[in-house]
Design goal:
The structure holds 2 protein chains of 2 kinds. Chain A is mainly α. Chain A is 73% helix and 2% strand. Chain A has a domain of 229 residues. In chain A, the strands form 2 sheets. A two-stranded antiparallel ribbon of chain A has the order 1-4. In chain A, strands 2-3 form a two-stranded antiparallel ribbon. By secondary structure, chain B is an alpha/beta fold. The chains are: A mainly alpha, B alpha/beta.
């Protein structure tokens, strides 16, 4: 399990555990930029990375701290629109600074909409985070300033330049995404293994007990909302700037929030790996099904029928997965490893 | 040299020639980002059905465009931007792409940068981003026939013609009921401008998406007692508006629908309430036009029609698909006249679209007289001065009730240029000249 021991004992460096990240870095920075096709990067890896990061953010809040939220895509929208406006209105602001400022804006909104968590729990909190969803979408459509008075309210991404290197190409955008995701995931990884992370888990497992042993429950919850929204906001920037290259408020609707929630449920709550496995499942699997479907039955049925049947297959698979392994793909992965190893 | 080595050489040469001809078989490919499921499936199946039917007609009746066969394949987008981008990435690896036709504002927006890099045209017939009309800034994007601003001007001109003349608009009251989305809001500034210019009173009321509850809005309308209501709706909002209007006692024949509120699918669910309702269109509905008749005979007669429900042949969306097919095919034909009767590059097809001039005589020769009026695209005007007409629903079908009306393009052009020049500045795009437009990438 990814949840760490609470006693904080130091374990000697386990080289086997370092092998996996090393392989990922070689693949992520070496093989993919060199060999991946534009389809793989643009249609699979970029949405996968953005959604993974959003899922890492939500997992921190829901998986580790136990606060159910349905506002994720609102925070993504705040991040995306904030980044657009910072970039537009402050001349010469470097891209990493833009992203950090966008994350901070999302964190601010996150804290505001996290306030009800001080009084509400579970489903009630989930419903109150819906307010964020509706409010943000409304505000972004209502006030033209956010989209620089573009008549249809759709923003398009600016040129991406980091330290003088243009990153507008598919590979450039991929490298920007993958670096951001790795850095933020590492930060979250460090965080959940720190005292703060243990506070999160304590609040999740038993709020009263946490209060008794001296965990500052209110501060912990708001901190979880802030950090989680920060990360989701940055994910929104990736979604808008590196993946779609254009964004309208309607693109960040409730469906996206549910999608991110399903990613962490299917992937495995309170697990880093779960966010990535879940995102891979949600992004890649439908595409795989659609390609197989089109290849096998493309001449027999039209694209509408194919699409409908894919949904049925996907739905059935999700049910089977959750019955077979309620703790998600991450746990399934562990079990497989034990069987093989 | 032995006999066998000669033979081997000959075999290799033959294989090479065969292989080469296989690669260069004269085909022109249309990637279709269609939507046949989801909330907007009615529009998707009709439009792409008509488009495919017309491409089929050209292949079967004429053997392609000057011998160049038309091919296509579909990817389902459900009208969602992410899916549209995925399908774009999937289909763009196909060779010989002529043009993209996503029929979705959102997907089109997401594709502008990408297709500009690819140098392949993007067609957004009757919709899209208004300022892409300016070909100086958007070389590869074509909002053919009608952009949202022209549509607005066409509607106001029509209301004026019903009142007698443009001067009679003074003191009249018009309410615009618009869909609460980027699409719905796009024309707000233009209605304001026209209200100032012609001196009519204007009030614009938003209906939140999806618009299945409009009691409050129509009560406001009743209080304001407007002379006309312009319905700028989408999907379920349209029949609900018509029904609610009936309930609050507003006459349907004083409601004028915009180009996305003009289909059979918008009025049939409203039943009686839609009788007398009038809407703008760029292409008349009905199957009496020769080209539609040929599709019925040649394509549906052979069991190759794309629409499952034959009752929808000649419906608004189906005819829009057919008109879209005509415009795409003619652009290819015009480009072939310059570059040769062969597979063209995307940039060559772009040149074809920029010289897409179909006068009423040519439209008649294509069997589309009265189906649509004419088009006159140039390198800097990517809309092509499309004419509009108005049709009234009699409870069973649409009947054309106006002549072809010209929007006030000259009034709109400076506003479009202001917007596109701002975009060019924001993105660092160099404004194109006529010489740039004539430089074509062929390879």
């Amino acid at each position: 399990m990814a949840v760490q021991a609470l006693d904080g004992t130091r374990v000697p460096i386990d080289w086997q555990r370092l092998a996996m990240p090393a392989v990922l870095i070689v693949v992520g920075y070496g093989l993919i930029p060199a060999y991946a096709s534009s389809y793989l990067v643009e249609a699979i890896l970029l949405p996968f990375l953005a959604l993974s990061l959003a899922a890492v953010g939500l997992n921190l809040l829901t998986g580790y701290c136990g606060q159910l939220s349905l506002g994720s895509s609102a925070f993504m929208a705040v991040g995306a629109f904030a980044a657009y406006n910072f970039n537009l209105r402050i001349d010469g602001l470097p891209l990493p600074a833009t992203m950090i400022l966008a994350g901070i804006s999302a964190a601010g909104i996150g804290v505001v909409f996290g306030l009800p968590s001080l009084r509400l729990r579970g489903f009630y909190l989930a419903v109150s985070t819906l307010a964020a969803q509706f409010f943000v979408q409304w505000a972004l459509t209502k006030f033209g300033w956010f989209s620089n008075y573009n008549p249809s309210g759709v923003i398009s991404a600016p040129h991406l330049i980091v330290a003088g290197f243009p990153l507008d190409g598919a590979t450039g955008r991929y490298l920007l995404s993958v670096t951001t995701v790795i850095v933020l995931t590492a930060v979250v990884w460090r965080l959940v293994n720190s005292a703060t992370g243990r506070n999160f888990i304590a609040v999740r497992d038993n709020e009263t007990a946490a209060r008794v042993i001296g965990v500052p429950v209110l501060r912990t919850k708001l901190l979880a909302f802030a950090i989680s929204s920060f990360i989701i906001g940055v994910a929104g920037v990736l979604w808008a700037f590196t993946y779609l290259r254009t964004v309208e408020p309607a693109g960040f609707n409730l469906d996206r929030s549910f999608q991110i929630l399903f990613i962490i449920i299917i992937g495995g709550l309170a697990s880093m790996r779960g966010a990535f496995l879940g995102a891979a499942f949600i992004v890649v699997f439908p595409l795989l099904l659609s390609r197989i479907g089109a290849f096998a039955f493309g001449d027999l049925f039209d694209s509408g029928v194919l699409d409908m049947s894919q949904r049925i297959v996907l739905g059935a698979l999700i049910i089977i997965f959750l019955i077979a392994e309620p703790s998600g793909l991450s746990a399934l992965f562990d079990r497989l490893k034990r069987r093989i190893g | 040299m032995t006999f066998f080595s000669h033979l081997k050489k000959a075999a290799i040469a033959t294989a090479f020639v065969l292989g080469a001809t296989a690669v260069h078989a004269d085909e022109q490919y249309f990637p279709l980002q269609s939507y046949r499921v989801g909330p907007y499936a009615a529009g998707g199946t009709g439009f792409f059905g008509g488009f495919i039917d017309y491409l089929n007609l050209i292949n079967i009746r004429d053997g392609g465009v000057n011998g160049v066969k038309l091919t296509w394949s579909e990817g389902e987008t459900q009208y969602e931007v992410e899916k549209g981008v995925e399908v774009y990435e999937r289909l763009k690896s196909n060779p010989d792409i002529a043009a993209w036709n996503p029929l979705s504002v959102g997907i089109a927006y997401a594709m502008i940068d990408r297709i500009t890099d690819d140098k392949v045209p993007l067609i957004t017939i009757n919709h899209g981003r208004t300022d892409t009309t300016d070909g100086r800034v958007f070389p590869y994007v074509f909002p053919l026939l009608l952009n949202p601003y022209s549509e607005t001007s066409g509607i106001v001109n029509y209301i004026a013609s019903r009142e007698g003349s443009l001067d009679k608009l003074k003191g009249k009251k018009i309410v615009v009921l618009y869909h609460g989305s980027p699409y719905g809001k796009e024309t707000i500034p233009i209605y304001e401008l026209l209200a100032q210019k012609y001196g009519f009173e204007l009030s614009q009321i938003e209906v939140p998406h999806p618009g299945n509850e409009q009691q409050a809005q129509w009560l406001t309308i009743r209080r304001e007692r407007p002379d006309y209501v312009v319905l700028r709706g989408w999907g379920v909002m349209n029949p609900v508006a018509l029904k609610t209007a009936q309930k609050t006692g507003f006459p349907a024949d004083h409601i004028v629908g915009n180009v996305w509120s003009n289909s059979e699918e918008d009025v049939i669910p409203a039943g009686d309430a839609a009788k007398g309702y009038t809407a703008i269109t760029t292409q008349a509905s009905g199957e009496q036009y020769p080209v539609v008749q040929e599709i019925v005979k040649t394509i549906y007669g052979a069991g190759k029609g794309n629409l499952e429900d034959k009752g929808r042949i000649g419906s608004v969306y189906h005819n829009l698909g057919i008109v879209n097919g005509i415009l795409n095919v003619e652009a290819v034909r015009i480009a072939q006249a310059k570059f040769g009767n062969r597979t063209l590059t995307g940039d060559e097809v772009r040149w074809g679209f920029e010289h897409l001039k179909l006068d009423p005589a040519r439209v008649e020769a294509l069997g589309a007289k009265d189906l649509f009026h004419s088009i006159n695209v140039s390198w800097d005007n990517h809309e092509g001065d499309g004419y509009v007409t108005f049709q009234q629903w009699d409870g069973k079908k649409w009947n054309v009730v106006s002549d072809w009306i010209a929007p006030d393009w000259r009034l709109l052009r400076p506003i479009i240029e202001k917007s596109s020049e701002a975009y060019a500045k924001e993105k660092g795009i160099k404004i194109r000249t006529a010489e740039d437009a004539d430089a074509v990438v062929s390879n």
